[in-house]
Amino acid sequence: MANSTGRPIAPLILSAEERAYLERQVRRHRAARSLSERCRVILRCADGVPSKSVASEIGVHEHTVGKWRRRFLRDRIEGLLDEARPGRPRTINDDQVAAVIERTLRSTPKDATHWSIRSMATETGFSHTTIRRIWNAFGLQPHRTETFKLSSDPLFVDKVRDIVGLYLSPPNRALVLSVDEKSQIQALDREQPVLPMMPGVPERRTHSYVRHGTTSLFAALDIASGFVIGKCYKRHRATEFLDFLKQIDARVPEGLDIHIIMDNYATHKTAVIKNWLARRPHYHVHFTPTSASWINQVERWFAELTRKQIRRGVHTSTNQLEADIRAFIERHNKNPNPNRWTKSADEILASVKRFCQKTEQTLCGEL
């Protein structure tokens, strides 16, 4: 049988710089979706994937894949950018755009801590629409702010490797428990009845409340199964924590090593706790780095408890609050869903390193 061949396709070979640029655009969260899609098309074509398979994988027409392939072969990276469209010529030049960006980044208004679109428009003499377009084009959002906290723990690297190693490769015949307490949970009641949600109207409640006491929840999350052991206490001292450890010990099958991941809270390090653990050599304690509670998986479960049960709950007593928490734990344990840790210790440390380098460069640029 004669070989049937179609139209010959020119090979698509990327240089190291081109591949790095394309992969960077695909990873960027703020990159235009159209540009990110085109970059994925070129990367898959460069890997030798047929156009039909690329189209099916990315969700575009095969002709679209061929179009961007041809444009890239002709114009390289420039071919993936949008061509200039007809319309009214620009009324603001590049130097004026750069001046707006520089003022946004390097200065603040006299009467505020950050620029708004209207205040920048008044200061520069441009329309607020022009300022909005410039800020959108360069991803500038002066009204937003984010917080961060870097751990100062001298053993940060060792502790991250230790705990992530437990998550990704737990030891045989061992139980890995993520332990922590959620203290001072308030039993809040609204001063007036909550108005239920109606079509077109959200649930409404008064901003003022009546507090009927607090409770503290100690919880241990089984990393492998997602099962939670929890108990509420009026206080969160070493006495209560020791009682909770005894609750864990009573519910854990015999013959297993128990690895406990917990933070550096003083309650966890008292002499009573140390002596209790020392008498049980099958217990192994792994402390999280200082200011790094994000690595303790039970914190994620606490967030679910807060979102689903506590934040919008109405409780007229701590007994009612504790009953709802116990009911939440029981429902969760009927169908536990363990979290899947995916990031390795090397990836976490590399991310922290990049952030520190970026922060240092930003501070040096300001100086």
Please give a structural write-up.
The structure is a single chain. α2 (33-46) crosses α4 (62-75) and α6 (117-124) packs across α7 (128-137). It contains 13 helices and 5 strands. A 5-stranded mixed beta sheet has the order 3-2-1-4-5. The longest helix is centred in the C-terminal third of the chain and has 22 residues, at 345-366. The protein is of the alpha/beta class and 367 residues long.
Protein topology:
Elements: H1 16-27, H2 33-46, H3 51-58, H4 62-75, H5 94-106, H6 117-124, H7 128-137, H8 156-168, E1 174-190, E2 209-222, E3 228-233, H9 238-251, E4 257-262, H10 271-278, E5 283-287, H11 298-310, H12 318-334, H13 345-366
Parallel strand pairs: 1-4, 4-5
Antiparallel strand pairs: 1-2, 2-3
Report a brief summary of the structure:
By secondary structure, the chain is α/β, with parallel strands linked by helices.
